[in-house]
Design brief:
Elements (H helix, E strand, L loop, with lengths): L17 H6 L1 H11 L11 H15 L7 H19 L2 E10 L2 E12 L2 E5 L1 H10 L8 H9 L3
Antiparallel strand pairs: 1-2, 2-3
Helix pairs in contact: 2-4, 4-5, 4-6, 5-6
Amino acid sequence: MKESARPHHVLEDLIPDGSEFVNNIPALITRLEKRLGGARLNYSSASIKRLDAWIRGYHGSHTTAQTDPRLFQELSAYYGEVLRREINGQWKVHEEKVSAGHIQLEPNIAAVINGRPREIKPWSSVLTALYDEDKRGTKLSDYFLSDSGLK
């Protein structure tokens, strides 16, 4: 099958290797702190609201069609790490079969929430908040409540 004809995973261009992403989370968060003006992020659920404000400003000067893999990775790393800490989860690289010859490594979080095992895709919430035109304006903090089981 031609490369252009095979199914593609949404993360292929944004997070090509989930294992590498997980290993680079501290560096990605450091880059995000620099992008946000150098102030340290404190990994609290309240700090997600700071990201909401920054994303609102970003949307003011960018369209949802303008994807930026570095920004996406930085936001996904921080959002995921805050979520992981909140729910006492663990990063888990999930092998998602995209086609017969292609597997995408997804950086997900495994946790037990309300007594049930779950696997959460923090990158999916960031993807929606940044790039989904139909949900533009939805806050990452709203997704956090849902992803963490607090809502």
